[in-house]
Amino acid sequence: MLDLVRAGVGLSLARDALAMTERQERGLVFAEKMQVPCSLGFICRQDRCREPVIAWALEMLNRVWDSGE
Question: Among residues 2, 33, 54, 56, which one has the fewest Cβ atoms lying within 10 Å of its Cβ?
């Protein structure tokens, strides 16, 4: 995505540290006061959701989201 921004034909969301680096090294504009409300989702194939690593990830996500963190 940042390649499109650097080429002048795109916009992108980026972590703060990455956006600041791009601003300092390449002069890209960083919209500091902009907030974008969004929903996050985690998806996987249903036939794989019981695999140990995927099941663990789903459990951790449920713990974080259910606790309001």
Answer: 33
Question: What CA–CA distances, in Å, run from 11 to 4, 8, 21, 44, 45?
Answer: 7, 8, 16, 27, 30
Report residue 54: phi and psi, to 5°: -70, -40
Q: Where are the domains of the chain?
A: 1-36, 39-69
Is residue 42 a contact partner of residue 54, using CB atoms and an 8 Å limit?
Answer: no
Q: What pTM was estimated for this model as a whole?
A: 0.46
Query: Terminus-to-terminus CA distance in the chain, angstroms?
Result: 28
Distance CA 59, CA 12 (A): 30
- pLDDT tens string 15-28: 888 888 988 999 88
